[in-house]
Write a structure and sequence with these properties.
Chain A: Pathway: Alkaloid degradation; nicotine degradation. The complex is a heterodimer of chains A (160) and B (770). With 160 residues, chain A is α+β, with helices and mostly antiparallel strands. Chain A has helices spanning 22-29, 86-93, 103-116, 124-132, 142-158, and strands at 2-7, 10-15, 48-51, 54-57, 70-72. Chain A has a five-stranded mixed beta sheet with strand order 2-1-5-3-4, sandwiched between helices. In chain A, strand 1 and strand 2 (10-15) form a beta hairpin. In chain A, helix 2 (86-93) packs antiparallel against helix 5 (142-158) and helix 4 (124-132) packs across helix 5 (142-158). The radius of gyration of chain A is 15 Å and the shape is globular. The termini of chain A are far apart. The relative contact order of chain A is 0.16. The mean pLDDT of chain A is 96. Chain B is of the alpha+beta class. Chain B has three domains: 7-144 and 202-254 and 258-291, Aldehyde oxidase/xanthine dehydrogenase, a/b hammerhead (Aldehyde Oxidoreductase, domain 3, Alpha-Beta Complex); 295-468 and 613-762, Aldehyde oxidase/xanthine dehydrogenase, molybdopterin binding domain (Aldehyde Oxidoreductase, domain 4); 474-610, Aldehyde Oxidoreductase, domain 4, CATH 3.30.365.10. Chain B is built from 21 helices and 28 strands. In chain B, the strands form seven sheets. In chain B, strands 3-5-1-12-9-10-11 form a seven-stranded mixed beta sheet, with helices on both faces. In chain B, helix 12 packs parallel to helix 20 (723-740) and helix 14 crosses helix 15. The longest helix of chain B is centred in the last third of the chain and has 28 residues, at 540-567. Chain B is globular, with a radius of gyration of 28 Å. Mean pLDDT of chain B is 94; it is low at 68-80. Classes of the chains: A alpha+beta (160), B alpha+beta (770). The interface between A and B is large, with 57 and 57 residues. One FE2/S2 (inorganic) cluster binds at residues 37-40, 42-47, 57, 59 of chain A.
């Protein structure tokens, strides 16, 4: 089936089997391997991407369902000059990653929330809910909470 | 340029990491395994023909098909049969006798011995097509009685291997304790503890890609021991080692579970050679939950004796270990528990016995802590039971028995020689940090308030072993100085999230006195570093750190020798400082390392370096509130005081300690693989059925360190990273028992799920008639 995905601003005209999940199409057809598969059944969140701004588990959605949509993956977080986003910087500064396998999923779910509401930094409970949504086996999560908080507070200061 | 916290972070946060599944090799095929749903049975037939008819399927084989495969005119033609799984006889942890006659076939030949064991493999142009093929394979397994619990299997009513006992190994540490000791002691307590089978669950499952090129193979695998994998794969293929190169790219966690040559790896390498095409296997999570190695798996019985003052007299630990269906490293692993049974106490008599029993479960293997959590949990639970028996504060009982700092090196009755320690120092710091007296007062207050939730405080003092066993305490590597000022470090380790690329260049830069950016690390590649052991047993900071420190000394010595020759002065006159050589008597003779290399040619040093075994230790304290109506445990506080000697990178060690505490909480409260009587794990809903801690389950955790250098290594570093798995579980369990004050603490077996806690909350309390 012919579909078009706009991934990180770039148009990908694709011919995909209807059964292929979005994660596989991003990884294999678009060769964007930053999106990881940790469980392929919707529990871990490593495969998180933004579809039209909404956080989605790309292992649970078919690529054909996203025809015409705009998809953002971890590769699309850096600025135009390749500089890391505030959130990416905060993850590194707070040691919010060890093996880094879960990291793209946490980055995407937090980016989606931050972009939807730049006042997120005022609300620790909502940040905690974000951290609860994914699995990480290495860090014990607290550094991830601190990283998202740090980036959210930075965003808060920049917001009007 | 942005300054990254760790060098790894740049690629890993930008989506540019390179894990095995990310590697693009043209023409690569995907392998999918067809797995038995029966735990124990006779394989009657396998029919792969329908799979071969599926479009996109390149081939499908059962073990029998591979045995019959005609030899092709290729270097693998010497292989008449699919080789068995190599069993890693390593450092006294496993034995050839245990394996003899019980070989692990890479694909089932006659008998299925664990649920999920592969009966066939299908290779397709992509994963979807290979799975289409796998769905068409039919096979028949005639069920046999499943041996699920070690106690049942040990009776040998049904042997897993005809004519051989299910008991694969028996062993002991220490001397048997005379009956009179137990008879005459003022207090003797007993306990029975189950250490459930756990799933290590790195977020990246196992993955391997094997690419043949002429008569060579390049293997990419998320792995802890690339040289072992090279050696074992080469041996399986009957090849010399130098024709196989193993590269470890980014690895998404391991926790002990990625150091073996698994059956799937043997099959994939074999097929890549046979087909002369690259083949990969990317394990999926459901597969991993079924057939990745398990951790722990012990049924323990203990006896602990003390005099009326609470001085320990004797400790006896009996271990019945569930080692899974095939003897592998896990057979000898319970000996680690036996050797560490003494713990941090000056108990004069300690005796531990081990019986490793084969069962119809997937193979047991090291998981973070690997034998030491089982030792610490058994002893620390027993210590609390003893404190209650003697009506003594559990902190005081420990204080009276900890091995004093002046007694090191300390020879334990179970054959360990502890290198250094200040066990009481860690205990006191933990008590102060948690505000032990404050929580005891709160506990007393709640005791008088019938509406208050019961609260408990649990202690756990542990000592662990790091670096490995004798014969495995060395590592290989070296340094190379370039004309451009760069310094390249190489070693046989492999990172799976521990930040080696950051820590080791910093260590080398510090030792040589040069800027960090000049140093880079190459590891996890047998093509770059010919020999190596790898990263396991908390050995990397301790052993590899010492090796790289040693290589710095070699490099400095060589640089001084060269400068002396060049300047025609005695070598004693040449000094090294901050990356330069200088003549102590001639201020004008100064040369940077890079200029020295330009003048005198390539400078490369390589060596093997060995450290002693080290014994990190610490005390963890948990404060728990228990809801007797819901059976839930709410951890209010966890304090972890660890001593891993000299710390190379405080933030990385902190991260390791914190993360491992959360895994320790997982073992105590949530994790465990339930098995049906038929030997099938009851994990039908995947990760919804195996509860990994999420952020909701993480209490406020405070990690602190004391610092007692190891005398066995020039850096004084001991292993870090496993402390939480070792120290935390008993602290949590003891806190729950302390809250509920149950008469029979054995009712509380991990994981302390709401069901377990709810039942225990209804059982007789201490002092009540049972
Ligand atoms: S891979 Fe999609 S949620 Fe785990
Ligand atoms: S950093 Fe390894 S799983 Fe999160």
């Amino acid at each position: 089936m012919k579909i078009t995905l706009t991934v990180n601003g770039e148009e990908f005209p694709l011919d995909v089997e209807p059964r292929r999940v979005l994660a596989d199409v991003l990884r294999e057809d678009c060769r964007l391997t930053g999106t990881h598969l940790g469980c392929e059944h919707g529990v871990c969140g490593a495969c998180g991407v933004l579809v039209d701004g909404e956080a989605v588990r790309s292992c649970l959605i078919l690529a054909v369902q996203c025809d015409g949509s705009s998809v953002r993956t971890v590769e699309g977080l850096a600025g135009p000059d390749g500089e890391p986003s505030a959130l990416q910087r905060a993850f590194s500064a707070e040691h919010a990653l060890q093996c880094g396998f879960c990291t793209p999923g946490f980055l995407m779910v937090a980016t989606g929330a931050l972009e939807a509401d730049p006042t997120l930094g005022d609300d620790p409970d909502r940040i905690e809910d974000l951290v609860r949504s994914n699995l990480c086996r290495c860090t014990g999560y607290e550094p991830i909470r601190r990283a998202i908080t740090r980036a959210a507070q930075e965003a808060r200061q920049l917001a009007p | 340029m942005h300054q990254w916290g760790r060098r790894e972070d740049q690629r890993l946060t930008m989506g540019k990491g390179r894990f095995v599944a990310d590697i693009e090799v043209p023409g690569c095929l995907d392998a999918v395994f067809v797995r038995s749903k029966t735990g124990h049975g006779t394989l009657r037939s396998v029919d792969c023909a329908p799979a071969r008819a599926v479009p996109g399927v390149v081939g499908a084989w059962a073990a029998a098909d591979l045995m019959d495969m005609p030899a092709c005119a290729h270097s693998a033609s010497v292989l008449q049969d699919l080789p068995p799984v190599p069993h890693s006889v390593l450092a006294r942890l496993s034995s050839d006798e245990a394996v003899a006659g019980r070989e692990w076939p890479a694909l089932v030949k006659e008998r299925v011995r664990y649920a999920g064991e592969a009966v066939a493999v299908v290779v397709g142009e992509d994963r979807y097509l290979a799975e289409d093929g796998a769905a068409e394979v039919t096979f028949e397994v005639e069920p046999l009685p499943a041996m699920v619990r070690p106690s049942d299997a040990a009776r040998d009513s049904f042997p897993l291997f005809d004519g051989l006992s299910n008991v694969a190994l028996t062993g002991e540490a220490g001397q048997p304790i005379d009956d009179s000791v137990w008879r005459d002691a003022a207090a003797v307590v007993e306990g029975r503890y189950r250490q459930s089978l756990l799933l290590p669950t790195p977020m990246e499952c196992r993955a391997i890609l094997v690419a043949p090129d002429a008569d060579r193979l390049t293997v990419w695998a998320g792995h802890q021991a690339p040289h072992r994998l090279r050696r074992e794969l080469a041996a399986s293929l009957g090849w010399p080692e130098d024709r196989v190169r193993v590269v470890v790219p980014d690895t998404g966690g391991a926790f002990g579970s990625k150091s073996a040559t698994f059956p799937e790896y043997v099959v994939v390498a074999y097929l890549a050679v046979k087909l002369r095409r690259p083949v990969r296997w990317i394990e999926d999570r459901l597969e991993s939950m079924m057939v990745a190695t398990r951790g722990r798996g012990q049924d323990q019985r203990v006896r602990l004796a003390a005099d009326a003052d609470g001085r320990l007299l004797a400790y006896e630990l009996t271990i019945e270990a569930d080692v899974g269906a095939y003897p592998h490293l896990g057979v000898g692993l319970p000996m680690q528990t036996a050797w560490m049974a003494t713990g941090p106490y000056a108990t004069p008599k300690v005796h531990a016995t081990v019986r490793s029993v084969l069962t119809n479960t997937m193979v047991t293997y090291p998981y973070r802590g690997a034998g030491r959590p089982e030792a610490a949990i058994a002893l620390e639970r027993s210590m609390d039971t003893m404190a209650r028996r003697l009506s003594m504060d559990p902190a005081e009982l420990r204080r009276r028995n900890l091995i004093p700092p002046e007694s090191f090196p300390y020879e334990t009755p179970t054959g360990r020689r502890y290198d250094s320690g200040n066990y009481a120092g860690a205990l006191e710091l933990a008590l102060r940090t948690v505000d032990y007296d404050g929580w005891r007062a709160e506990q007393a207050r709640r005791g008088k308030d019938p509406g208050a939730m019961p609260l408990g405080i649990g202690l756990s003092c542990y000592v662990e072993r790091s670096g490995g066993e004798p014969g495995g305490l060395f590592e290989f590597g070296g340094l190379e100085a370039g004309e451009d000022g760069s310094i390249t470090a190489r070693c046989g380790a492999a990172s799976s999230g521990q930040g080696h690329e950051t820590v080791f260049p910093a260590l080398v830069a510090r030792t040589l006195g040069v800027a960090q950016w000049r140093v880079r690390l190459i590891e996890g590649d047998t093509g770059e570093q010919p020999e190596g052991l790898g990263s396991f047993a908390s050995r990397t900071a301790q052993v590899v750190g010492a090796l790289l420190w040693h290589a710095c000394q070699l490099l400095i010595d060589e640089a001084r020798r060269r400068a002396a020759r060049m300047w025609g002065v005695p070598v004693e006159r040449v000094e090294w400082s901050d990356g330069t050589v200088r003549d102590a008597h001639d201020r004008s003779a100064v040369l940077d390392l890079s200029h020295l290399v330009k003048a005198t040619g390539p400078l490369k040093v390589d060596d093997r370096f060995e450290t002693g075994m080290a014994f990190p230790f610490g005390t963890h304290v948990a404060v728990a509130e228990v809801d007797p109506e819901l059976g839930t445990v709410h951890l209010l506080r966890l304090v972890a005081v660890d001593d891993c000697g000299v710390v190379l990178d405080p933030e990385i060690v902190h991260g390791q300690a914190f993360g491992s505490c959360v895994q320790g909480i997982g073992q105590a409260l949530y994790e465990g693989i339930p098995y049906g009587d038929d030997g099938v794990p009851l994990l039908g809903n995947g990760l919804l059925d195996y509860l990994l801690p999420t952020f909701s389950e993480v209490p406020p955790i405070e990690v602190r360190h004391t610092r007692t250098p190891s005398p066995g290594s020039p850096l004084g570093a001991k292993g870090a990273g496993e402390s939480g798995c070792i120290g935390t579980p008993a602290a949590v369990v003891n806190a729950v028992i302390d809250a509920l004050q149950v008469a029979d603490p054995d009712l509380l077996q991990m994981p302390l799920t709401p069901d377990v806690v709810w039942r225990a909350a209804r059982a007789p309390k201490r002092g009540e008639p049972r």
